[in-house]
Design a protein that fits this description.
Blueprint: E1 6-14, E2 20-32, E3 38-47, H1 49-63, H2 73-90, E4 93-102, H3 104-111, H4 113-129, E5 136-141, E6 144-152, H5 156-170, E7 173-175, E8 178-180, E9 183-191, H6 198-214, E10 220-222, H7 225-244, E11 250-259, E12 265-276, E13 280-282, H8 284-293, H9 297-318, E14 324-328, H10 331-335, H11 342-351, E15 358-362, H12 364-368, H13 372-384, E16 387-393, H14 400-405, E17 410-413, H15 415-419, H16 427-440, E18 444-447, H17 453-461, E19 466-467, H18 478-497
Helix pairs in contact: 3-4, 7-8, 9-11
Length: about 500
């Protein structure tokens, strides 16, 4: 004691009313005895409670999410670091879960950010209720949450907790006077089974989350080494997609649609294909989701529409004056409020092409999550005269209310119903019911995936208007389509002549 000439400390004092104050004590020795021991000192006591409160607030804001009160990314990393050290000491394991709320953006877009915030707070509470007090639930931002399941002696409970979280999100969210529904997708990785580094654990959990969402959402997926290879492929393809438009690597193929009453072809569906310079033909099921996730689908979709419209102009001049071409429009294009369909309509005017010569195909999921931006664009198409077709009917969230709410011109029966079509199959009465219902509502019906003459005959007898599939022709480039069309017309003419 007394070895230094000054003294400083921070401590708390309890007041008479039971509250606490932080005090900064500072002092200086002013007299010592012959042995050098302190005799007298002077100093001050300063109330620093306000400063301490400000420091605590700054620390809270730096480490916790302001909306939900959960740890943020920085605190999550600190917690995970400590949990890993304890697992190393005790020979235990842990799990990292990435959780994403499916369809949350639609809640924000339709009900507003205030209701979206209420949903996030309730989602955080539900996730917390599914785990132990010793586990960590964090919010990374937006609708993304992370869970650390620490001190695991086995991995058996991990899948059950993931399913508990998914189930918890299925219940309705009561947001004031509004109601909302979302679901959750979960990606899981394990320490030390999958990785020992924090960055690797985060990357693997994110890859597993992508796999869960890609598999249909509202489910969980464990990390596997194959996901890393798939992730690298997606990264490379995303980079290559940016060059594909400029490098004219995309092609538009066309699959004919057969009118059952005449046997003639007066319509075709435009289907995007990508010929990669080193990979060759890339499956659309592979590159379309990547184009959607990296924001390129709008530019690609615009390019497809322009190409298809020009082809429709050529075929109306060369093949049939009422020839029509249908194009698929991604739900992400519809949900982009900034997507200007006016450019599409201007392109049609420049080509001298009547709007009804083009058909835009949409999916059932789009109608289920119809935001104001979606409704506006559907209305624009209808008012402009462009027809709207509902693709893959029967595979998603089919409801008569959607068909009544939105004006649909064409209903396309999904190939899953057509594939198993036979005289005594259950699919036949289903197809008949869909056809009757669509006709009663003023829609024409196209059957997809027709592969046999028997399927063609059954659908025609059931009153279906038209069909497409390998029984007639595969998708093909325009020049092959011209040759195929000419050959088919010659065959029809010869048949009639007989």
């Amino acid at each position: 004691a007394g070895l230094t000439p000054t003294f400083i400390s921070e401590h708390r004092l309890r007041c008479h009313d039971g509250s606490w104050k932080w005090i900064l004590a500072r002092g200086m020795i002013i007299a010592r005895d012959a042995g050098g021991r302190p005799l007298r000192l002077i100093g001050t006591h300063t109330d620093i409670s306000s400063r301490k409160a400000s420091e605590a607030l700054i620390w809270q804001q730096a480490n916790y999410d302001g909306l939900t009160g959960l740890p943020n990314r920085q605190m999550l990393r600190d917690r995970l670091t400590q949990d890993i050290k304890q697992c190393q000491r005790d020979g235990l394991s842990l799990a990292v879960m990435f959780i994403d709320l499916d369809r949350f953006k639609e809640v924000n877009d339709t009900l507003g950010h205030d209701h979206g915030d209420l949903l996030l707070v309730e989602a955080a509470r539900r996730i917390h209720a599914c785990v132990r007090d010793t586990d960590t639930v964090a919010r990374l931002g937006g609708d993304e949450f992370t869970v650390i399941l620490s001190h695991l002696s086995s991995h058996e409970r991990v899948a059950q907790i993931a399913q508990d979280i998914i189930d918890a999100m299925e219940s309705v969210f009561l947001l004031g006077e509004e109601r909302a529904y979302v679901s959750a997708s979960v990606g899981i990785t394990l320490y030390p089974h999958d990785a020992t580094d924090i960055e690797d654990l985060f990357r693997q959990a994110d890859q597993a989350l992508y796999a869960a969402k890609d598999a249909g959402r509202s489910r969980f997926s464990h990390y596997t080494p194959e996901l890393q290879e798939a992730a690298l492929t997606r990264v490379h393809l995303a980079n290559d997609l940016r060059d594909a438009l400029a490098g004219r690597q995309f092609r538009v193929f066309y699959q004919p649609v057969i009118d059952f009453s005449t046997g003639r072809v007066v319509k075709a569906e435009a289907l995007l294909r990508w010929f990669h310079p080193t990979r060759g033909w890339v499956n659309p099921d592979t590159f379309i989701p990547i184009a959607e996730s990296c924001g390129l689908i709008k530019d690609i979709g615009d390019w497809v529409f322009h190409e298809a419209a020009m082809q429709a102009r050529r075929w109306r001049d060369a093949l049939h004056p009422d020839f029509r071409v249908s194009v698929n429009k991604s739900p992400l294009q519809f949900r982009n409020a900034g997507h200007r369909q006016a450019a599409w309509f201007e392109h049609l005017r420049a080509l001298g092409l009547p709007p009804h010569s083009m058909v835009v195909e949409i999916t059932e999921g789009l109608l289920m999550d119809a935001t104001p931006a979606v409704v506006q664009q559907l209305d624009e198409l209808r008012h402009a005269g462009v027809q709207v077709a509902l693709d893959d009917f029967g595979t998603g969230y089919s409801s008569l209310s959607y068909l009544q709410k939105f004006e649909i011109d064409v209903l396309k029966i999904d190939q899953a119903f057509v594939r198993g079509l036979a005289p005594n199959s259950l699919n036949l009465p289903l197809c008949k019911a869909i056809i009757v219902m669509a006709h009663e509502m003023g829609m024409r019906v196209v059957a997809e995936g027709v592969e046999t003459a028997d399927q063609h005959a059954l659908l025609k007898a059931a009153g279906c208007d038209s069909g497409q599939g390998f029984h007639y022709a595969r998708p093909m480039p325009p020049d092959e389509f011209d040759d195929w069309y000419a050959a088919r017309e010659r065959g029809l003419t010869e048949t009639i002549a007989r």
